[in-house]
Amino acid sequence: MEPTSTVGSGTGSPRFLSDKAAMYGTSPHAASRRKWWVWGGIAALIALIIVVVVPVYFGVIKKSSSNRVASGSSSGSGSGSSSDSDGSGSSSGSTPVTAAVVTGGQGSKVTMDDGSQFTFDNSYGGTWYYDADDPFNNGARPQSWSPALNETFHYGSDRIRGVNIGGWLVTEPFIAPALYQKYPNVIDEWGLSEAMRADTANGGISQMEDHYKTFITEADFYQIAAAGLNYIRIPLGFWAIETRDGEPFLANTSWQYFLKAIKWARKYGLRINLDFHTATGSQNGWNHSGRLGTMSFLNGTMGYANAQRTLDYIRIIAEFISQPEYSDVVTMFGILNEPRAIYTSNENIQRFYVGAYDAVRLASGIGAGKGPIISLHDAFNGLPWWKGFLPGADRIALDYHPYVAFNNQPSDSIANHLKQPCTTWGSIMNTSWSDFGVTGAGEFSNAITDCGTYLNGVGQGSRYEGDYIYDFNNEFSRVGSCDTYIQWQNWDDDYKAAVKSFTMASMDALQNWFFWTWKVGNSSTSGTVESPNWSYSLGLQEGWIPTDPRDAVGQCGNTAPWTGTLDASATGGATASTLGAAATDGIEWPPTTITHAGPVTELPFYTATGSVPTLTAPALTATASSAKSSPINAGSGWNNPQDNAGLMVPVNGCQYNDAWLESAEPTPAICTPAAKRGLTAPKPIITAPPTPRGYRL
To answer: What are the angstrom distances between the C-alpha of 466 and each of 219, 412, 451, 462, 475?
Structure first.
C-alpha cells in the first residue's frame, strides 16, 4: 500500500479542494463572464503543480516515506516501524515536513558524518540505511547475496567474506609505518605512546587520536561493502577501557572510534567481529599485543593476576555488545588474539577459554540473538587439536591464522605456488567444520615472503634477505632482495594475475575468511605502500585482488566444500545451556599452576572489589522535526544487571610486581604465601551493579 502525503495528492488534498472552490466560485453567470481567463489560470496552475509539486513528491517525500515504512518495519533491534506521528506520513492538521532520505541503493545520494555527499556505487545490490531518528535500524544490506543485518546469517551456507581493519585502534609498525618512522627507536605501541607523550611540541599523545580520526573513515566502510565483502574484523586493545600503573597507552579514546565503526558498519550492512587483540602483560610477546618482548599473561609471577584483569575486560566488552542495540551488528567476539600456548600451557589456555566463555554468556544469555558468537583462536596448536572442545557450548567458533610468509622463503615465482593454499588448507577446514563446528580464518594474506617495511617488526630484518635478527638457528640464508616484493609499481600484468590467483585459491580453500588487512599506510620516506601483499584496498585498486570475491569459488577445483549440518548449540538453537559438567572437567577456571611461576595459591592475585568501568554508549539526539524523545536511548552499556561482581583490583596492603616485567620475577615479599594467609581467597564477590556509563603464523 502506498503511503499517503498531503503534498502532490491531487483533489484528495483539502488544500487543493479549497483552491478549486475559490477559483470557480458559486455563480454560473460569473463563471461564464470569466470563461477565458479562468481556463488560462487553470492551465497555469496545472503547469505549476507538475513542475514543482510532483518532483518533490516522487523525488523526496514519497521515496523517503516508502523507505521508512518498508525498511523500518523489519528493523532488527531499533524501533523499526514508523507511523503518521513521527513525521514519515500524513498527520491531521499539521504542516507537511520534507523528510530526509534515509536509505537507497545504486545511484542514490549518501550524506556522511562529516556532511559530505557521494553517489552510492554498489553494483552488487547492496543498500545503505541511516536515519538519525531511528539510529538502530538494521535494514542495510552489503550485497544482494548477503543477509541484511536484520536477517539471519546462516553460518555454513552464508559465507563470511571479510577483511580486517588492522593498524587502526591497535597500531602496528608495518600497517602504519609513518607513525613509527617519526620516532626511529620505537618498536611497539607502548614505546610509541611514550614517545608521543614526550613530544608535546607536536601534540603529545593527541597524535594517537589524530591517527584514529584519519587512518580509517566512513568511506572505508562503504568501500568494503562495495568490494563484495560482508564482514569486518576490528582489533581492539584493553586501553579502550582503562589503563593502570603508568601504562602509557591512550586510554578511553579508541572506544569512541569503535562506536563510530558500529555506526558505519550498520549504515552499510557490515557485520563486525570484534577481536580483543591485547591482554595485560601481553599474551604473545609480539608488537601487536601492545608491547614487544615480554609475555606475562598466564606466564610468570603476574600471569594469574593479568589473566584475571583480562577476563574483566572481556566481560565489560561482552556486556556492551550483547545489548539489543548492538548485537545484530557486533555478531562475533574474538576473545583473545593469538595467545601462545607454548608459553602458557595448553591446559591453561583451555581454562582461560572456559572462564571467558562463562563471562560472555553471563553477559549475553544463551541462544540465538543473545550476544555474539564467541571466537577462540587455536593458540597455534592447529585446528585438529581442538576437536571435541566444549561440546554443547552455545555458539563458539574456531579462529585460524594461516600464513605462508613466515616459513621457508621461496626462491621461485609465486606462479609456482598457486595451488599451495588448496592442498594445505582446504581439507583441514572441512574437517574442522565437522569435528568442531564453525571455523574460519581470522587472518591471511597473499604474501609468500616476509618482505615488507617493518613486517617482522622495527629493525628486525627479514628471512628473505637473510638478516632476520631472531634466526638463532641460522635457518634462513639470503634468498634475494625484497625490492621485488616491495616495489609493486613494477609488477607486470602476469605477476599481478599470479598474485590474484593465489589470493583466490586462499579464499576458496578457507571458505570463511578475513583478509589481513584492509589498508596499509604509506611510508613517510617513500610516500607509498611498502607492504603491498597485505593491503586489500591496494590490491583491489591495482588488480591483484578480485573485484568480486565470489569469483574465488571453485578456484581450487574443490567439488566437495563442507555442506554438513551444525549442532543446534553451534547456531543458537539451544535456549538453555547444554554444556555439561563433563565438558569442562579438569579445565575449569581458575588454573591451579602458572608456567614459570608455580601454584596459583602462592602468586599475586586480584580481588573483585573495584568499581566496574562500564563502556559508554554514543550520545544520540533526535532531529528537530521528529516526534521521538531526545536524547535517544542508546543503552546503559550493561546488558545483564545480574552480572554484578566488582572489578578485579589489587588486594589492599599487598605488593605486586610490574605487570609487564619478564615472567620469572620473584614474588614480592609482602605477597608470599605466609603473608597472604590472612587475606580473602581470590573469589568473586557480589557488589552493587555497575553504573551505566604475528607475529602472524
So the answer is: 40, 16, 11, 6, 9
Give the model's pLDDT for residue 71: 36
Task: Answer for the pair 77, 327: CB distance below 8 angstroms, yes or no.
Answer: yes
Q: How far apart are CA 539 and CA 562, in angstroms?
A: 28
Specify burial of residue 176 (Cβ count, 10 A radius: 0-12, 13-18, 19+). buried
DSSP label of 51: I
Run of H or E residues at 235: strand 231-236
Q: What residue ranges of the chain have pLDDT lower than 50? A: 1-95, 97, 672-674, 676-697
Give me the pLDDT at residue 560, please. 67
How is residue 613 written as a grid cell? 568501568
Q: Residue 366 in contact with residue 576, Cβ under 8 Å?
A: yes
Count other C-beta atoms under 10 Å from residue 107's C-beta: 9
Q: Which residues are catalytic?
A: 338, 443
Phi-psi region of 184 (alpha: psi -120 to 50; beta: other; left: phi over 0): alpha
What integer pLDDT is reported at residue 661 of this predicted model? 83
Domain 161-584, architecture per CATH: Alpha-Beta Barrel (3.20)
pLDDT digit string, tens, across residues 230-244: 999 999 999 999 999
Would strands 117-119 and 109-111 be described as parallel, antiparallel, or unpaired?
antiparallel
Contact present, 129 and 111 (Cβ < 8 Å): no
Phi, psi (deg, nearest 5) at residue 582: -65, -30
pTM: 0.84
**What does the pLDDT read at residue 580?**
84
| Domain locations in the chain as residue ranges | 161-584
